[in-house]
Amino acid sequence: MKTKEIKVGNVLIGGDNPVSIQTMWDRPITVVDNKLIDKLNDIQAAGCDIIRFAVPKIEDAKIIGDIASKISMPVVADIHFDYKIALKCMDYPISKIRINPGNIGTKWKVEEVLKKAVDKNIPLRIGINGGSLPSDLRENDNLSKALITAAEREMEFLDKHNFDNFLVSLKASNIDDAYRANKAFSKKYNNPIHLGITEAGSLIPAVVKSSIYLYKLLSEGIGDTLRISISDDPLKEIYAANEILSALKLNKRERVELISCPKCGRASFDTHEFNNLIQKKLSTVNKSITVAIMGCTVNGPQEAKHADLGITGSGNSILIFKHGEIIRKVTKDEALEAFTQEIDNFEK
Asked: What are the mean pLDDT values of the chain's consecutive 10-residue runs (348 residues total)?
């Protein structure tokens, strides 16, 4: 079912719009300084469309509002328990409010949030998590059904108040439960869906779980925006999301496809080190090119001759090649800058 379109700042979600990428800031903020803004701009440059911040105290609303006024990426305020925080956040240029109406309190408090959201034309995300279901649904053996039931209760309340500017997330830590819930929901409702596996863990388990889960849903046309939840730097969430969307041919951006061999006893070029050095650069390149980082000068250029650009080396002699043909020889100290230049200048 085609979902309806909502607008989150300058990002359109749902309808025929491409799947957008989100992340969440990972620590408390007390000062909005240039270092913070630079980090947020790096996250956006890597391919993030929307960023979310926890707002645990009402004083934090001003801080998040200050951030929203200094970056072009839409900012989402994540609210639990206190409806006054949601109201305060909407006094600032915040693009969306994420709430779980079930833990905001009595219905009149939710009504106050809805009234101000209508007045400010700010969408909401109704966030339903398997770990924070209403008490009467927590012992339900069918978690996917419980997630939908919890969402439907909140949607019924919103519908009674003629509020339809919202999207829904149904998250669980188990792939099958989350998959069944979102698939069943998508068959019944046309609200945009925010996808994600909650509490997915550290880098490797999180990427594995999220890849399987997102492949199943996105390949069926289900899902409008997503977050890869990783217990690590938010930038890694963006890297992973971009790779998944690119693999599924759903990435709206032109991206670099990276080929890189593992190290072995024959390796004469440290692919691990160079990957770490070049990763940030590659994440910001909006070109549909293939880049190879190879560990062996003997086989590297030929094994990766299908790549648009590649690099390998031995000791202090580094080779840069294009479609298998060596085009440049530089020293190890010159390698990063030289390879970056070749990427910037490359045209098909």
From this structure: 93 96 94 95 95 96 96 95 94 93 79 94 92 82 93 92 95 95 96 94 93 96 96 94 93 86 76 89 88 78 82 89 91 93 88
Q: How far is CA 326 from CA 51, 304, 305, 322, 342, in A?
A: 42, 12, 10, 6, 12
CATH superfamily of 257-345: Sulfite Reductase Hemoprotein, domain 1 (3.30.413.10)
- Residues present in the chain in total: 348
List binding-site positions for [4Fe-4S] cluster.
261, 264, 296, 303
Specify binding-site residues: 261, 264, 296, 303
Count of other CB atoms within 10 angstroms of residue 110 = 22
Q: Whole-angstrom Cα distance, residue 337 to residue 343? A: 10
* pTM, rounded to two decimals: 0.88
Q: CATH top-level class for 6-247?
A: alpha beta
